[in-house]
Amino acid sequence: MEQLSSHCWYSADHNTILGVASFNGDFVYDGIKNFYDRDNALALVTDIVLLESEEGDLYGLLDHRLKKTFQLASEKFHHVYVMNDVANINEMAQRYNALHHSNVQTCGSTEFNLLYRSFSFHLDRTYRPLNVSPVRHFVNLNGVPKYFRARIVDDIIENKLLSTTFWSWNKRHHTDRVNIHFSNLKNFDPNITKNLDTSGTMLETVHNSQEKLPMEYHLALIDIFAESIPDNFGGVFITEKTWKPILGEKPFLGFNERHYYRTLEGYGIKLYRSLFDYAFDDIEDPEERYSGYIENVIRLGNMQFEDVQRLVLGESSNLRANRITLEKLQIELPKKLQPFSHMQNICQVLKLWYSQADMFR
Length: 361
What we know:
By secondary structure, this protein is an alpha/beta fold. The protein is built from 13 helices and ten strands. The chain has helices spanning about 30-40, 40-45, 65-75, 90-100, 110-125, 145-160, 215-220, 240-245, 260-265, 285-300, 305-315, 315-325, 345-350; strands at about 1-5, 10, 15-20, 45-50, 80-85, 105-110, 135-140, 165, 220-225, 250-255. A six-stranded mixed beta sheet has the order 1-2-3-4-5-6. A four-stranded parallel beta sheet has the order 8-7-9-10, sandwiched between helices. A hairpin with a 5-residue loop joins strand 2 (about 10) and strand 3 (about 15-20).
């Protein structure tokens, strides 16, 4: 194993270079460039894996270091792969491919990082259900503005379901100087900021709503949300938005990539079929898939509260089983990261939780 820069490593099997995190500096690009200058023939048979971890801020950087890294890697190395962590590097790779007719490929994600991070909140009882009586059908927490998140709020307004829903729109990572525009919105202005304030809990933009749950979360029967990457950008990606309700034994309806629910079933998660029609999960087109998703929300939102509550109570055994399944889930690093798994300094840079001791056994 050779360290090429503070965030760049060459595997001991001489097949792969891993570049991690801060694309807003010289950490990755210069390591790859120096490797190529040293042995350009070896570069031709070496793969590049680029992973965005929590340290890097990729947004707005496509025209800077990340673009240069994509260009060098795709032109001078064997294959180039990108891997999601907490940000959507897949989306940026697809944009680069479209502009430059290149072939930067995807190779999965490290979403289980976010599961293990969720475990820490779970152990701190952040996600544990409270002994309170729910009063509304849905809770819909929105931090970073995204298109399908805006569509959900818009459809809640359009179908007169505001009285059944606790919702927020925090505009994290955006300022009042930035105008947000999403097409197809009929009623909702995504440039507003709305906190949950019924209980006096303010979810400020600096707080992650996965870390600080308001009372309204517990006063709702069902968590509805759009995941971070629901736009066909290279495979299902799962974050705390999904792990949180599972660990908190709360029914949820998330909108994500095609086969999101099939993926969860593959992990052993039981679906809540008395509540939701999951047929939309097989639809490839995201707009058509969303139409099937929101039909569930509208149907349940128009039911009497007591009838929905009765369905939720009927899923109690599945809710408990799913929490236990996550607590016992056996996972491994993604294949492309396995050659680097024994390097402790890499695990620190990646902020990987995979190597931590089992919390529940």
